[in-house]
Amino acid sequence: MTRGRVRFELLLEQVLAALPAPPGRLVDAGGGTGQLAVALARRGYQVTVVDTSAAMLATCVQRAAGEGAEVGARLATVQGDAVDLPDLLGKESQQAAVCHDLLTRVDDPAALLGALAGVLAAGGVLSLGFANRDWLALRAGRRGEHAAALRLVEGTVVAPEGPVGSGGPVVSGGPVVSGGPVVSGGPVGSGGPVGSGGPVGPRRSGGPGGALSAPPVNQGPMTLAEAEAELERAGFEAVAASGVGVFADSGDDDLDPAALAALLDLERLVAGREPYRSSAQTLHLVARRRVLRPNLTGYTP
Ligand SMILES: C[S@@+](CC[C@H](N)C(=O)[O-])C[C@H]1O[C@@H](n2cnc3c(N)ncnc32)[C@H](O)[C@@H]1O
After folding, report:
1. Measured in angstroms, how far is the CA atom of residue 32 from the centroid of ligand 1?
2. How far apart, in whole angstroms, are the C-alpha atoms of residue 83 and residue 59?
3. How far is the CA of 109 from the centre of ligand 1 (A)?
4. Could you tell me if 35 and 183 are in contact, meaning their C-beta atoms sit under 8 angstroms apart?
5. Given ligand 1 and candidates 78, 88, 128, 166, which is best to mutate, with the most ligand atoms within 8 Å of its CB?
6. Which among 20, 120, 192, 226 is least buried, having the fewest CB atoms inside 10 angstroms?
7. Nearest atom of ligand 1 to the alpha carbon of 170
8. What residues form DSSP beta bridges with 47?
9. For position 156, what pLDDT does the model report?
10. For the chain, what is the radius of gyration of the CA atoms?
11. What is the pLDDT of residues 251-261, one digit of tens each?
12. Nearest CA to ligand 1 atom 16
């Protein structure tokens, strides 16, 4: 998924509104070239980017280096599979995690969310962005690709944009490098109340505590309701849901200032509002790792 500058700025605003104030230790799972990670390091967060691709991480380090030594020192990279996050970075070692455009590309989304829960401290915040299947269905239908739209609506397709997946075989452990980076952003509220989006479709894969236990397969893009259900099963409580790219698209990067301001206002206004949110190109869920209290009767770790 290519993300234009306008959509990135909107997403960054939502992420910053969701995160605890800097400084804080956070991981960017599948952080790629570091567009988001570097922006966060610039704002004072201590960021570790975990990615399977050495090439992506090299670009990330370069991007960070371009920001100078102070920002560079706040960004580290680890080559590895995000499913191994607790082993790579330490259980409960992070105050926050960001994971954008990875969930719908991995073979086992439940395992990824489980790993994100494992690396977060109790109460830690997760910012989760992913491709919206409802948007893809609408796009396919508007293009006249009705059979594809039908499969997307029914949830029986593995994604036009594909389980592109993993930049290669899983590597674990791996070197830590640093550097420094880019981008700005601004304030903005993130979404409205969570819990809309309709019933959960046939995708249920059953995570820890789930009643169903279908084999983990890459199921492609998700709807809002599906992702919320997966988060719940992984031990998260969803606290906000927003859409990014309801109206904005990559071609909007060159708008004149007045048109751009109107577009930004519009996107901010509808980000948490239905039916707009559920038809956004990207969905952004903010969740908290549930706090488990071992002194409660019936608690089993
Ligand atoms: C589409 S890019 C998203 C990059 C960035 N998060 C963003 O939103 O722009 C997906 C990234 O995830 C990485 N990736 C794929 N599978 C992974 C896995 N299992 N663990 C960690 N990284 C993975 C890829 O190498 C790639 O850099």
Report:
1. 5
2. 22
3. 13
4. yes
5. 166
6. 20
7. 19
8. 26, 75
9. 76
10. 18
11. 888 899 999 99
12. 166
Average pLDDT over residues 155-180: 40
Is residue 185 within 8 Å of residue 39, measured between CB atoms? yes
For residue 275, cis peptide bond before it (omega within 30 degrees of 0): yes
In the chain, where the domains are located = 5-132+160-289
160 pLDDT above the threshold of 70? no
Spacing, Cα 301 to ligand 1 middle (Å): 30
Decide which of 286 and 216 is more confident: 286
Give mean pLDDT, residues 260-286.
96
Report the atom number in ligand 1 closest to the C-alpha of 35: 9
Q: What is the pLDDT of residue 250?
A: 78
* Nearest residue (CA) to ligand 1, atom 8: 100
The 3-state DSSP composition of the chain as helix, strand, coil percent (nearest 5) reads 40, 20, 45
Contact between 139 and 221 (Cβ < 8 Å): no
Helix (H, G, I), strand (E, B), or coil: what is residue 239? Answer: strand
Across the range 144-173, mean pLDDT stands at 61
Atom of ligand 1 minimally distant from the CA of 3: 9
Q: Which of 15, 87, 105, 112 to mutate to test the pocket of ligand 1 (most atoms within 8 A of CB)?
A: 105
Task: Kindly report the CATH number that applies to the domain delimited by 5-132+160-289.
Answer: 3.40.50.150
- pLDDT tens digits, one per residue of 11-48: 999 999 999 999 999 999 999 999 999 999 999 999 99
At position 199, the amino acid (one-letter code) is: P
- DSSP single-letter state for residue 126: E
How many whole angstroms from 292 Cα to the centroid of ligand 1? 30
d(CA 58, CA 193): 38
**Mean pLDDT score across all residues of the chain:** 82
